[in-house]
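Students often ask why inverse folding is considered easier than folding. One informal answer: many sequences map to the same fold, so there is more than one right answer. In these notes we will look at a single instance of the problem. The structure comes first.
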């Protein structure tokens, strides 16, 4: 049986990491990164590199745990096996009540933004959120009633999202036309550069997020102890290369000031410059499908999470939630739970954007920042196992976990710098959810 399980090689592991990491973030976070770095292109590229290395050291560290267990379930399984079921419940609550729904909501909203641009609809927050809500509910319904359709859409979106990224990167190399003129009416949101550039690490973390999911297939990878650390190094470096090429391609074609002024619509303007009005629409269509692919993938995981936690008796009403509909092979109560939590987060997201209390950021960045805090528990566990002799290599068992902890600290500091007033409050909310999961399982 063991040999039948080990059917993934290095190329599959790398492609999975690249496919998961390259999502919607780079399309609508590039201008945020440039803004936080005060419009400095070189500093923006440096931030991309810092973000990539924060991911690499963390992912290689987690791969050490993944290679020591046959359990499926990714990070929740690592908490359960290597720390405690109570810790697994805490992390599961955070993922179910904050991480998955907040990211799903923000990416759905971004899909709404690109839909208004594509169809020339009023680009108000209400219209964007309304369209995003329709997408969010639709993908829950699609993935509940048809696993096959949801999977097929995911494959199509993965291919389509690479086309504009790689295309803009290649065109930028050969581009020598003068920058387009920027309009006087628009205000360039350049910020003073001091330590504020650290705030760019929050959108960077969003852009690279998803790498943790790839650890869930470690028990099915051939020679996992060698293959996964290699894949988890090469994969993020490929993502870094694609992101930097796309970013520099945009800068080469329109200049940093234009990106800062036109923000999310910059990519449409580039498409129009290259191929006329229909070219702009075509690029927007590719990006919209790519973003919807991310929504689909997040909903795919979010639908199953309540069911998975209920099977471990880690959430209230577990008996009801874990009942599976034989026609869909999913729990209707888990799906309903996922939709309700997501809609609550959509309301929270709307209020934060309407009141602008997050200064250009969004609630998903905070959930991602908090997730890096939770990974520190696992990094520390690897250091402990190295002391106990369970992980022999001092590089994988000591050096990389320490660098992973430092990487998490850098991202957390960046998140707080981005909005020192409200980010700590949201982080406390995430911490309360995490602790509630721990207490619930302990009492249960």
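Output (designed amino acids):
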């Amino acid at each position: 049986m063991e040999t039948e399980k080990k059917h993934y090689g290095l190329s599959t592991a790398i492609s999975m990491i690249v496919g998961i990491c390259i999502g919607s973030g780079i399309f609508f976070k590039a201008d945020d990164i440039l803004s936080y770095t005060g419009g400095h292109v070189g500093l923006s590229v440096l931030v991309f590199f810092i973000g990539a290395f924060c991911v690499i050291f963390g992912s290689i560290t987690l791969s050490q745990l993944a290679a020591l267990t046959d359990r499926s379930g990714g990070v929740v399984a690592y908490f359960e096996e290597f720390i405690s079921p109570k810790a697994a419940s805490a992390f599961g609550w955070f993922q179910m009540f904050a991480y998955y729904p907040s990211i799903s909501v923000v990416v759905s909203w971004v899909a709404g933004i690109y839909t208004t641009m594509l169809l020339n609809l009023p680009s108000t927050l209400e219209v964007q959120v309304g369209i995003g809500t329709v997408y969010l509910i639709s993908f829950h319904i699609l993935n509940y009633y048809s696993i096959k359709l949801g999977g097929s859409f995911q494959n199509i979106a993965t291919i389509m999202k690479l086309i504009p990224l790689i295309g803009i990167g290649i065109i930028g190399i050969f581009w020598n036309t003068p920058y387009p003129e920027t309009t006087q009416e628009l205000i360039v949101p350049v910020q003073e550069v001091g330590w504020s550039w650290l705030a760019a690490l929050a959108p960077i973390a969003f852009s690279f997020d998803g790498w943790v999911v790839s650890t869930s297939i470690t028990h099915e990878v051939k020679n996992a102890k060698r293959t996964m650390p290699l894949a988890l190094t090469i994969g993020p470096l490929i993502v870094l290369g694609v992101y930097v090429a796309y970013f520099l391609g945009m800068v080469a074609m329109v200049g940093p000031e234009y990106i800062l002024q036109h923000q999310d619509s910059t990519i449409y303007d580039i498409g129009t410059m290259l191929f006329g009005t229909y070219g702009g629409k075509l690029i927007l269509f590719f990006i919209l499908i790519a973003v919807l692919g991310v929504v689909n993938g997040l909903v795919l995981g979010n639908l199953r999470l309540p069911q998975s936690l209920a099977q471990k008796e880690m959430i209230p009403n577990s008996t009801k939630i874990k009942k599976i509909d034989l026609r869909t092979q999913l729990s209707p109560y888990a799906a309903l739970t996922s939709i309700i939590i997501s809609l609550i987060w959509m309301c929270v997201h709307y209020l934060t954007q309407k009141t602008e209390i997050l200064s250009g950021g969004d609630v998903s960045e905070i959930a991602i920042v908090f997730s890096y805090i939770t990974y520190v528990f696992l990094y520390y566990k690897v250091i402990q196992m190295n002391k106990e002799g369970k992980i022999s290599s001092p590089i994988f068992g000591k050096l990389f976990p320490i660098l992973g902890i430092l990487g998490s600290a850098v991202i957390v500091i960046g998140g707080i710098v981005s909005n020192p007033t409200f980010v700590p409050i949201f982080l406390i909310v995430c911490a309360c959810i995490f602790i509630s999961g721990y207490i619930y399982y302990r009492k249960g």
